[in-house]
Amino acid sequence: MAGAAPGASGGCVSTAKEIESGIAVRSAGMFTALMTPALSGVVKAHAKGDELHRSAELLVTVTRERLATGVTPENSEALVPGRLPAVPNDPFADGKPLIANRAGDTWVVYSVGPDGEDDGGPPAAGVQLPEGDDDIGLRLPVSAGMPFDAP
Length: 151
What we know:
By secondary structure, the chain is α+β, with helices and mostly antiparallel strands. It is built from two helices and three strands, in the order ααβββ.
């Protein structure tokens, strides 16, 4: 899978807090005091990018499985250990895997996002993002009208 993001083993929120507390124990100068809040944002932005990369890799693996077998897997566990050694970890969920499964005619792979709560995944294209929903991920259509599943 992708290279380890900051906090990939312990979650990016934990890493951001570690950075902030490490700076707090030192006597902070003006520059440090101004930069500390930005560092948390940088760590979270990196984790978001890493999560989207992991989601894309998982969806490519789903497509490879469909091309090899003619059947779209129903969930990510069907890909382990044949195509993946494990489901990639969610950088926001302290070592838990990304949420990945087939939901009707769509495959959805997502992270719980910075708030650590599962809000049901990213909204479908053209749907307004509900208030408080910060899940990060990707969707892949697998409708019967597309040449995705064998008849």
